[in-house]
Every structure is written in C-alpha cells, then in structure tokens.
C-alpha cells in the first residue's frame, strides 16, 4: 500500500492532499476533495492532466489508481452545473451555443494549465557547506558534498579580482583575508556567495526565507532565462525540487514560470506559520578553533570578538 499526495486547486486556492493510499477508492477521494474545497460530493468535477481534462469519478468503488491517478498530480476541482428538472415549461432555445457539454460537465473556461508535481525540500548534510551542496543539487540533480571546494574557489577568484566591489566594508574583513577564509571547509556561505554563484552559473537563485516568509531573488536584474530555489531557515540551506508524477524531479525552472514561484511563496508562509525555522538565539554552535560550545548568534559574536576566532560549526 503506497501513500499518495496530490495538489488540489479550487476556488479556495491551492492545497496538498496527503491522506490517501493506492487502495483508496474514488468515493473516499471525493469525500476528501469535498472537505478541502467546500463543493458538495454529488457536484464535484475533477480535472487532471495537461491540458486539464475531466476525470471519470462516476464509480465510487474504483480505486484511485485504477482511474489512472499517480502521486504528485494536480487535481482541479470545480462544481458541476445542476439543471433544474422540476420546471415543466420548455425553455426558449439558445440563440448561440459556443460548445456542447462534455459527458454532462459544463464547458470549462479560463482553466490555468497546471504542471503535475509538488514542490519539495531535499535535506542535505549540516556540514558548514550546506549552501554549496544545495546549489550543486539544483544545478545537477544530485547531492554531492564535494562540490563546495570548487565553488569556494570560484568565489575567491571573483572576489580577489574585484577589490572595488568586494571591499572590506562589504565583506566584513579585508579582501585577501576573506578569500582565504571562504576556501576553508568550515566557513559558511550566505548572500554574498549566492550572488556570486548566481552570476557565475548564469541562473537566478531564489532563496526562500522561512524565518521572514519572503523570497530573496539573486540575479533578478540580470534577466536570466532560468531560476532555481533554495530553502533557508535562518541557519541551514536545503534545495527545493519539483517531484513529478513519473518519479522524476525538476530543479531548474523557466524564469517566466510564476506558478512554481507562487508555490515557493506559499511554502515560505506555511513554514513560518508552523515555525519551521531556526531561532538564532537558541541554536548551538561550536568554535572550530578551541572547541568551545556556544548558544546563539550573540554569544558566538562575543566569543569571536574576545578570542579573534572566526570559525564556527553547527552542533
């Protein structure tokens, strides 16, 4: 028995349905969809596929896999038009009919084509190089914890070659010192590093900030044709990908695809509301120079100021 997940789109917005399995029936599916959308079970119309087409849900005893549904697909739920059969007066014939009803379902207009799949988080190791591993994943589709070395070198070369842009005021340390620091495996990446790698790879990198429920777009002004998404909880980065119905994944999206961008916005809001972020005042750190355990950003900054130690790792 396999768990199934679907994206449901209706007049109430977009929601995720995760309470069904491969053995669930069409009748059960209709009950869940009715609960999510507020449409009466008897009047539910479900469209699926690309372009969206009405799904046959007439037999409640069928399993949802028997009617061709696969996990990750998008279900568009609408309400059937019910004809009034109580009137005895024959209505006047319509002057014009643009399109006949299909299988008893009223014509659907302005249906927004939906891409099957659900935006998901891929968890990568918390090894001080999570940003670089995450970028490697969205660019290549696999977790490779060795890519940080090359990316650190790319960043160091860019910074070393532009002292005007990458001044001490911007970097927080002298240019040469930063170039040495960023190439150490224990050094964390952040906004500066994302901006440089966005430019180097020629792709917009959108960081979904779950702490503030916003998306910070790097390379937005460059009009790149593609974008990728990273999830940031205040300390740790993870890549985002689209899990498709055929089992494949998509990590790079056309820049004009605003559907996936809105999904990322919704994910950020949901993550913040469920407090899926790191409290910077409580997270644990370890000084990689003297092994002292520290709690919170303020304590780490105080320790760095007192000891001149500038290398910290996650605990």
UniProtKB/TrEMBL annotation:
Q: What class of enzyme is it?
A: hydrolase
The terms describing its cellular component in GO are: cytosol; nucleus
Main subcellular localization, coarse class?
cytoplasm
What does it catalyze? Answer: Thiol-dependent hydrolysis of ester, thioester, amide, peptide and isopeptide bonds formed by the C-terminal Gly of ubiquitin (a 76-residue protein attached to proteins as an intracellular targeting signal)
GO terms, molecular function: cysteine-type deubiquitinase activity; zinc ion binding
Q: Which InterPro entries match?
A: OTU1_Ubl, OTU_dom, Papain-like_cys_pep_sf, Ubiquitin-like_domsf, Znf-C2H2_OTU1-like_C, Znf_C2H2_type
According to its UniProt record, where is this protein located? Cytoplasm
Q: Specify whether Mitochondrion is a keyword of the entry.
A: no
Q: Which UniProt keywords apply?
A: Cytoplasm, Hydrolase, Metal-binding, Protease, Thiol protease, Ubl conjugation pathway, Zinc, Zinc-finger
Task: Fetch the Gene3D superfamilies from UniProt.
Answer: 3.90.70.80, Phosphatidylinositol 3-kinase Catalytic Subunit, Chain A, domain 1
The enzyme's E.C. designation: 3.4.19.12
Establish whether keyword Disulfide bond is in the entry: no
UniProt record, GO biological process: endoplasmic reticulum unfolded protein response; ERAD pathway; protein deubiquitination
UniProt-listed SUPFAM superfamilies: Cysteine proteinases (SSF54001), Ubiquitin-like (SSF54236)
Tell me, in a sentence or two, what this protein's role is: Hydrolase that can remove conjugated ubiquitin from proteins and may therefore play an important regulatory role at the level of protein turnover by preventing degradation.
Name the chain's protein: Ubiquitin thioesterase OTU
Which lineage do the record's taxonomy fields give for this organism? Eukaryota, Metazoa, Ecdysozoa, Arthropoda, Hexapoda
